[in-house]
Amino acid sequence: MVVSDIARQFGGPRAVQRSIRSPLDLARAVENGLPVETADALVEGGALDAAELYRLVVPRRTLSHRRAQGGRLTPAESDRVARVARTVALAQETLGNAGKARAWLRRSNRELGGAEPLDLLATDQGARTVEAVLDRLAYGVYA
After folding, report:
1. Distance of CA 14 to the CA centre of its chain
2. What is the pLDDT of residues 57-71, one digit of tens each?
3. Nearest to residue 119, comparing CAs of 59, 51, 38?
4. What is the 3-state secondary structure (H, E, C) of 14-33?
5. How far apart are the first and last CA of the chain?
6. pLDDT digits (tens, 9 = 90+) for 87-115
């Protein structure tokens, strides 16, 4: 997976309002606060539904407030957008398409103690655990 796959999940350079060519570019964009449109793109692209966005990334009222106050997310909110985008991009790459990734992220997973992978994206450690399962799938450790 390359950084452009992650950026594509949240609307690409147009939504980010800058070029994302390297992990450092992505880190700087997150640090500066991503535009609200990047969170919206997760829903528009089908990575999350609105309820999932509000639960995993930014509460509804806060998102409305961000829109009214100039349209930028905080670095912490931006980090959550990037975390979800990174995991969704990896799931799509590993499973072959967006539909399979969407279904896998919402299905109980034995390797995750019966949790749905999407539920673990609320924290960085949870996301890394989901990514480790996807890595094992990619390398055929288990199916």
Report:
1. 17
2. 999 999 999 999 878
3. 51
4. HHHCCCCCCHHHHHHHHHHC
5. 20
6. 999 999 999 999 999 999 999 999 999 99
Three-class SS of residue 1? coil
Query: Per-residue DSSP letters for 63-107?
Result: HHHHHHTTSB--HHHHHHHHHHHHHHHHHHHHHSSHHHHHHHHTS
d(C-alpha 6, C-alpha 88), whole Å: 8
Tokens 């539920």, located at residue: 119
- Cα–Cα distance measured from residue 79 to residue 57, given in angstroms and rounded to the nearest whole number: 9
pTM above 0.85, yes or no: yes
Tokens (6 digits) for 14: 């147009």
